[in-house]
């Protein structure tokens, strides 16, 4: 018996060694597949169970299970699961009484990164009310647009954002919008205080009957994303989508004993859904910061025993640019979840800060397809699964794409052509009941633009990600570029048509063609615009600066402007960008006049070769 056992054990070891040699990612594949099957089964259960089991119910279960466990730490204060539950009860009761909220009413949250966001959202969710998460950097026209397209009649904001609200208050009052300020007092007519009402409200639990009609397909959130429209679009996040995003931490190996550090904005899907909602699903502790600080990052991680961090590409680059210290590997961070990191920065990050499992993601807020790099391979955004597994969960394909025409390549039958392995193509995800594309609130035109028909057969329907990817022969997924009228800078998507609209408000500018250009040593692409001037006008540096600073957040402002006699158009009258993007902003190679936005001088200044060299050497910070 002992001999047989020894032989079987030896055979098992040899078999495993053989599999590891032939299939080096066999173990990681199996672990990931088992995790996702388990999570998929849970989601299937939540779809069927009645009454519907939501993230709020998951949170309430955590409160019952671990009332005294710390849920949130922020600027020296800590809040247990029970504390946050009681605070959210008070918020729900105060808003229900003051704003007369009922199930299904949307409330816009215009708030910075602070604990208020967490318990106000939970309070609204307890009432069955969707929340619209407004980017606290937007102003004026964009703010009004974001508020109105989600159908909200109530907005909750913070004293530090009061000036931005006052700017659009006359329009809000005309629309019959109720504005609530998280303050004890306010003398502005049309703005009501909320903090005083919350403090007086009861913290007793609310009946689940208040959200009795909420189901897996109900709208849970509106999260704003830029695209080809110009103004941001409100992506509709249903409860099914919220659960799927919440499971990402679990799919990456996060456990109930972990502590997550969130410094990404909570108005984004990464910070809110993957970070905060994912922490609720795991029942873990959150360390929340107002904004990212490279100099304090590792000190915070050590101080609070952080084991899971979130990142965007810029996060890792900033950390790698900090002065080297002897204790850089002295921390407990074991998992990093995020997207957008360059291969060289990724390698340097691991070299400097230790053996951290970097879980690079590919996904879109409104999309129906995503990937996770659950392996140790550097530089990839995920690993694809072939066959039934992929077809069942989220069917997708890569199709050939004509960059010049900005459209898919089609054959004589009018169908798209699949890209070969190793070939760059446009990623599209088939729209099915299991992988739906809900679209954008109040914007059917842009929803339809993201739908691609007759892809592999007549009558089929796919979601167009707008991203060029590549699949290699080992099933790894590489992100190549974005297409169309969007570029990404400082972790934010920038819609080129919105920037162009603002530029043409300048008295001297006739037309503007906006695009993103690469800068050595930086993630993403920074904003640049080729413009033509009105007849008889010179470029007005001061007025142009005034327009972009007044109406655009810092990350969307074009840092370079190129003055051209005319703008090149395609045969269908679309502005050509490819050549402009390739030419960049080198004044030694471009004959057209070039200008640079100088925050120090508060104007646009001529872009000289000296300034160009200072930008490349990082003497001038972008």
TrEMBL record:
GO CC, sorted alphabetically, is: endoplasmic reticulum membrane; plasma membrane
Metal-binding recorded as keyword: no
Biological process terms in GO annotation: long-chain fatty acid import into cell
Q: Where is the AMP-binding enzyme C-terminal domain?
A: 509-574
Signal peptide region: 1-24
Write down what this protein is called: long-chain-fatty-acid--CoA ligase
Q: What NCBIfam families would the database entry show?
A: PRK08279.1 (NF006134)
Q: What is its main location?
A: membrane
Q: Which InterPro entries match?
A: AMP-bd_C (IPR025110), AMP-bd_C_sf (IPR045851), AMP-binding_CS (IPR020845), AMP-dep_synth/lig_dom (IPR000873), ANL_N_sf (IPR042099)
Q: Which organism is it from?
A: Mastacembelus armatus (zig-zag eel)
């Amino acid at each position: 018996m002992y001999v047989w056992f020894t032989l079987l054990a030896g055979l098992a070891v040899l078999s495993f060694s053989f599999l590891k040699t032939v299939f080096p990612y066999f173990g990681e594949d199996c672990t990931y597949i088992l995790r996702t099957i388990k999570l998929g089964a849970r989601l299937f259960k939540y779809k069927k169970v009645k009454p519907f089991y939501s993230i709020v119910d998951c949170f309430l279960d955590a409160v019952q299970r671990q009332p005294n466990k710390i849920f949130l730490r922020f600027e020296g204060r800590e809040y247990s699961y029970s504390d946050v539950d009681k605070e959210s009860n008070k918020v729900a009761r105060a808003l229900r009484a003051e704003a007369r909220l009922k199930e299904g009413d949307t409330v816009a949250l215009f708030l910075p990164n602070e604990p208020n966001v967490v318990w106000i959202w939970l309070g609204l969710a307890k009432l069955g009310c969707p929340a619209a998460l407004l980017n606290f950097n937007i102003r004026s026209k964009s703010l009004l647009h974001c508020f109105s397209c989600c159908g909200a009649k109530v907005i909750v904001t913070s004293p530090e954002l009061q000036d931005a609200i006052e700017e659009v208050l006359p329009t809000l009052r005309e629309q019959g919008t109720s504005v609530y300020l998280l303050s004890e007092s306010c003398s502005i007519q049309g703005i009501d205080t909320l903090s005083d009402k919350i403090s007086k409200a009861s913290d007793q639990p609310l009946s689940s009957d208040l959200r009795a009609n909420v189901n897996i397909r109900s709208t849970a959130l509106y999260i704003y994303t830029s695209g080809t429209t110009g103004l941001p679009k409100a992506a509709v996040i249903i409860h099914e989508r919220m659960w799927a995003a919440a499971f990402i931490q679990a799919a990456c190996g996060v456990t109930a004993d972990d502590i997550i550090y969130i410094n990404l904005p909570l108005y984004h899907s990464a910070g809110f859904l993957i970070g905060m909602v994912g922490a609720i699903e795991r029942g873990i502790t959150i360390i929340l910061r107002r904004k990212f600080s490279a100099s304090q990052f590792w000190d915070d991680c050590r101080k609070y025993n952080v084991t899971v961090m979130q990142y965007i590409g810029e996060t890792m680059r900033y950390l790698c640019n900090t002065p080297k210290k002897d204790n850089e590997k002295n921390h407990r961070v074991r998992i990093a979840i995020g997207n957008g990191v360059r291969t060289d920065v990724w390698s340097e990050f691991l070299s400097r800060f230790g053996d951290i499992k970097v879980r690079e993601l590919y996904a879109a807020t409104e999309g129906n397809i995503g990937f996770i790099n659950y392996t140790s391979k550097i530089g990839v955004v995920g690993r694809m699964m072939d066959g039934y597994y992929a077809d069942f969960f989220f069917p997708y394909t890569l199709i050939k794409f004509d960059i010049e025409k900005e459209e898919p390549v089609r054959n004589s039958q009018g169908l798209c052509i699949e890209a070969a392995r190793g070939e760059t193509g446009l990623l599209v995800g088939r729209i099915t009941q299991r992988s739906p594309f809900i679209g954008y609130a109040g914007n059917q035109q842009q929803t339809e633009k993201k739908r691609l028909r007759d892809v592999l057969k007549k009558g089929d329907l796919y979601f167009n990600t707008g991203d060029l990817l590549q699949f290699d022969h080992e099933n790894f997924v590489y992100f190549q570029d974005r297409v169309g009228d969007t570029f990404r800078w400082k972790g934010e998507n920038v819609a080129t048509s919105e920037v162009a609209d603002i530029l043409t408000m300048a008295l001297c500018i006739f037309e503007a063609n906006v695009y993103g250009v690469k800068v050595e040593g930086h993630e993403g692409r920074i904003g640049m615009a080729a413009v033509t001037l009105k007849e008889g006008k010179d470029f007005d540096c001061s007025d142009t600066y005034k327009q972009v600073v007044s109406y655009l957040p810092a990350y969307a402002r074009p840092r370079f402007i190129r003055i051209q006699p005319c703008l090149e158009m395609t045969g269908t009258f679309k502005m050509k960008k490819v050549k402009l993007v390739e030419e960049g902003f080198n004044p030694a190679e471009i004959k057209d006049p070039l200008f640079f936005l100088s925050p120090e001088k508060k104007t646009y200044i001529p872009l000289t070769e000296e300034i160009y060299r200072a930008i490349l050497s990082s003497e001038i910070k972008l």
